[in-house]
Specification:
single chain, 447 residues, mainly alpha, 17 helices, globular
Amino acid sequence: MARDLTKGSISRHIWKLAIPSVFSLLGITVNNFIDGIWVGKLGPEALAAIAPSAFAIWLIFSLIDIVPVGLLAIISRYYGEKELDKASETSVKTLQFTILASILFMLIGLSISRYILDFVGVSPEVVRLGNVYLQILACGLPGFFLTEALFGVFRAVGDTAIPMKATILSVAANMILDPLLIFGIGPFPKLGIGGAALATISAHYLSLGWVILMIYRGKLPFRVFVSRIEPFDYRLIWKVVRIGIPISISGIVFSAVYLILSHIGAPYGDFVVASFRVGQLCESVSFMFCFGFGQAVASMVGQNLGAGQPWRARQSALVTMGIVSAFTFGFTIIFSVFARTITSAFTSDMQTATAAVYYLRIIAISQLFMGFEIIGENVFSGAGSTLPPMLVSTVGTAIRVPIALLLVGPFGIGYPGLYWAITISTIIKGIWISAWFRFGQWEFKKI
């Protein structure tokens, strides 16, 4: 249901927006957990295969983010201004553009998947398995693109329940399909790692169909689909894309850096590459929690700036940072104390498990600063000022490579130096964007 965020209790709005968003994003994490657990039963090579594959998919999803980030910033402003006709026009034309762009990226993904895996430097068997996984997932890109764009529209009008329900539907379908398609239970073919990918895209298209049904049942206060193809509006599309590009660049750099870190760690063995997957699956619970609150504050900021209430937008950000700080401190304790218990769910391979425990205990130190970074990024994004978070994210993430090379090489720490590089850079980014938030003029940004 659409919600006016320009009046009423700030903290109540944030919680009502954030809880569905958190559950939506945790649904994605559960989806990844399921894949990780079932694929882990195929052996350490299969688990290692989905680690660089996941970073490649993250890179593609960074391109997908161009549209929903821009749509949320612009449509939330129009909704705050009560300009529903403009919100409708922006949605219709941008969604048609999204469908065309997604087909192009699908073709690119099918073409470059093997080259990405070759770059990491893992064993030939891991490359073979990873290529199967990536090729199938690439076929789901049109559905991924359109779903995320529609989620951006719903969040812009203050409705985070529809994305949550769609994600729950996708996760439930994936839970059922994963073992059936991986191990060939009953009449289903035994597809191994390819079955995990096929289960993911099948579940995603099912949830997309449900979202479209909800739109036709009137769950949005304006039209987003029309029965004709609209003339291509370069100016409008650029307005949306221009806002989303900096955040997209941040995601691309993030993915590229993790591929490079995997490349640095690969000579130690496939188990180091696999540890990235296990560690990130565990950390993603904390990450998705922060991002759920980030999506909530982005909607709050957008609508309140559209309504001419910059003070309320800033207060929304401060309240959200306080909430997230409390929870990320809790994750620091959990990752530090229960690292071995958590990681044992994903692998029985001793080397992979040991490396993953190192990963979790080291990145536990940076959880509070990760929360600052994510909330700060979403505050700027909601205001349509996406250059500051791009600079913080790209520079802060890129320095992981030289730090890792120093720690792994001259300092002689070995592969745990990769995890320390992630933690050190996250602390730097959290402090940097917090200072920019405090002293910047983001609440006066014009779109």
